[in-house]
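Internal QA ticket QA-208
Title: Verify multi-chain structure generation after dependency bump
Assignee: T.L.

Test input:
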Amino acid sequence: MSLKSKLHELKLKYQGKKMAPAFNAFHTFLFSPDETTHAGGTHVKSADDLKRTMNTVIMALVPVLIFSMFNAGYQHYSAINGFPVDFSLMNDFLTWDNFWIGIIKVLPLVVVSYGVGLLVEFIFAVIKGHEVEEGYLVTGMLVPLIVPIDTPLWMLSVAVVFGVVIGKEVFGGTGMNILNPALTIRAFLFFAYPTWMSGDKVWVYGARERSEEILAGANVDAISGETILGFLAQNKGAEMTYSVSDMFFGFIPGSVGETSAFLILLGGLFLIFTKIASWRIMLSAVIGSLVMGLIFNQVVEFGWITESSKFYGLMSFDFWKHLIVGGLAFGIVYMATDPVTGSQTNKGKWYYGFFIGFISVMIRVFNPAYPEGVFLAILLMNVFAPTIDHYVVRGNIKNRMNRLKNATIYPKDSDSKAEELKAETV
Amino acid sequence: MALLSKKDTNLITDPLADNNPITIQVLGICSALAITAELKASLVMAISVMFVLGAGNVVISLMRNIIPSKIRIIVQLIVVATLVIIVDQVLKAYAYELSKTLAVFVGLIITNCIIMGRFEAFALANGPWRSFLDGIGNSLGYGVILVIVGFFRELLGSGTLFGYPVFGDPIMKTGLYSTGYENNGFMIIPPAALIVVGIIIWVQRSRNPALVEEN
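Actual output:
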């Protein structure tokens, strides 16, 4: 007997029981169900249901996750021993030592995120008696990738409970939420525990303990592990030793999974190819950030702002480099394209994406205390997405009304057949 | 004979739960968001509103037959303003620190929708004793929510209650803080009050589905 039929039998056994939704959640995770809709009527027949969609996004995230596990160790050892002089991918990066740090630091984040989040989802499903919703499959993977590596696990749990309950369940569950749950969790962490979410001591494993040791007088020779945006915000861009290829491939400190623009780009292409995510949003967000970056570059070019300004570091940062540092790439590919919270209309997607990129870079430059605004920009546009859609739909209606006004309508009034019909109906 | 008739008792008990001014009528939200970061401020605000609403209801009720209906709002405003100024002066005289915390919000009791709402809905149509009970009842209902919100926000946001450290010292890392616990900065900012009030509304309506509005 195959696994699939065994699962089906179990499902029939549990039918109507209180725990049925919990079981059903796992049942269709791997296989499509045996039941078919009754004959008659029209039905959409498609293999890519919500679960398949979510699985595809997770597939696109797996390379990022694995890279981040190696990067966790690489940043940790580089902070202690200094960056390797002759960097070689196999000897310095893809080592077991590095991966081990990833296992002890990144994996617990993933486990806690999924454990707590799914627990909340299951509790709600059992109470409300509906099926467990798939929404958390992707959220659970996104959350560990967008927090600093040293985030205490209990903080993550609190934030996940908050994000799932207040960000999603109160609105009616998956598909009804206004805000992206993963970003709600990130925003909650940021506002609740700012000392753990920003500054230069949180992005590399152990940086906090090392700085405490140094304060206590220990003679530890260690790099603090400031992010690139952090350097720039303090006008210390010159002290930075990261090359452009470091930024692009992701050998830089930052939130767990946001560093590798290269793998995120591959994931994005995969999502576009499988038609899961909207290329319109991604492209317009990239354009938006480039436009804002160019404007700032021009401000510097014209000499409206001098090196003494606190905005100089980030304003003079080459506009295209904004895309490969910080969380902008990750946000554009995996967060902005969330089909629930984004704009639904094609035209709306262009506006929605453009403003995400535009506002992200703006927040980066003007908020030196926390030089990363992607999550705030996306949350803001999440709120505006329905408004954008509303005006797009209204505009479309207006266009069609105009067309109707100018159109020649057949049959014409003189048409004798029409007269007959009219007489009949009246 | 009981002190209050059943009808009069309801005037006090109804606003506490099933007709709560904040969670059911959704009035007075602004002050519930602004001053509930500390329990002490919430309590003082609740008492101030109780004084203003109780006394105001009586005054309006006594004058209800001589106020021309065209200018009744202005008359009501003058009554509230007088009472609020009394509260403000008393606070400044006897609790100066606290009056600085409450700052402009004592003055803004004037604009608290609950007060004008009760004047309009109740005091203009009922006798002084019943109006007084109604004022006390509604301000109690308001105060209960304020104290609940203030309790959670101060406990989780600052780790204190009435300024007394409950969890230990966050800087010296004693008590609960030695285990790695940290105060939740989110609870200090006003949006957190909105969420706490929302949760209270949620809990209340899922316990009593009759309160859920049709839409």
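Spot checks passed. Residues 84 and 106 of chain B are 7 Å apart (CA to CA).
Status: verified.
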